[in-house]
């Protein structure tokens, strides 16, 4: 995965970012069939990870897959704010599911693990989620995100000034995962600079410690 931290000036989604999204959505509509979305490498391997963890990816779709399906089905996307929407642009373009958080809502070390029957959190606009069998992120206060949904607790607001972004990568190294992740990280940083005047950007790439 890639981790990006930055100081940001968040704001309502502006016209320039909406135009960027409109161009991307037009490209997706012209080049993508609904039944082929899950074959996109980053989405395909995220779905495979869900299956290995014990979750049906057709019931709990990765966020990037959800976004692309909405576009192809002409359901449209909701404008949230500049920081969230630029994360959606990267997800749609790359197939990676991004977690975009207000860093000030999180405490202590963050762990990535597989959810158990005792784990739950309130997803943004989704109510309490069943996260058993999903890859989940947990801080000192509890679980707060999966590649399917982020939580109400850690969500980005207009007042967010310290951003934390996770790019979840399950593409194997031998299939070009490292290069794809690096490209997604660079695109995210470029958009952060353009649209939320990001400063003090710190980024790193880490691998899981066990399989």
UniProtKB/TrEMBL annotation:
Its transmembrane ranges are none
Q: Where is the B3/B4 tRNA-binding domain?
A: 45-186
List the Pfam families: B3_4
Per the UniProt entry, what species is this protein from, by scientific name?
Porphyromonas endodontalis (strain ATCC 35406 / DSM 24491 / JCM 8526 / CCUG 16442 / BCRC 14492 / NCTC 13058 / HG 370) (Bacteroides endodontalis)
Q: Which domain of life is it from?
A: Bacteria
Name one molecular function that GO assigns to this entry. phenylalanine-tRNA ligase activity
Protein's recorded name: B3/B4 tRNA-binding domain-containing protein
Q: Which InterPro entries has this protein been placed in?
A: B3/B4_tRNA-bd (IPR005146), Phe-tRNA_synthase-like_B3/B4 (IPR020825)
């Amino acid at each position: 995965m890639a981790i990006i931290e930055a100081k940001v000036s968040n704001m309502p989604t502006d016209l320039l970012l909406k135009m960027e999204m409109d161009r991307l959505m037009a490209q997706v509509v012209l080049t993508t069939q609904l039944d082929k979305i899950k074959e996109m490498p980053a989405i395909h391997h995220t779905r495979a990870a869900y299956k290995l963890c014990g979750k049906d990816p057709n019931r709990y779709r990765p966020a990037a897959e959800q976004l692309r399906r909405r576009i192809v089905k002409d359901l449209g996307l909701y404008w949230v704010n500049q920081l969230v929407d630029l994360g959606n642009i990267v997800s749609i373009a790359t197939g990676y599911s991004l977690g975009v958080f207000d860093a000030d809502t999180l405490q202590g070390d963050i762990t990535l693990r597989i959810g158990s029957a005792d784990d739950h959190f309130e997803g943004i606009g989704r109510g309490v989620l069943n996260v058993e069998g999903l890859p989940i992120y947990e801080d000192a206060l509890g679980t707060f995100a999966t590649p399917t949904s982020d939580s109400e607790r850690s969500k980005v607001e207009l007042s967010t000034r310290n951003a934390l972004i996770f790019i979840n990568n399950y593409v194997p190294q031998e299939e070009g995962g490292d290069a794809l992740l690096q490209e997604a990280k660079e695109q995210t940083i470029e958009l952060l600079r353009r649209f939320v005047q990001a400063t003090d950007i710190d980024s790193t790439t880490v691998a899981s410690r066990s399989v």
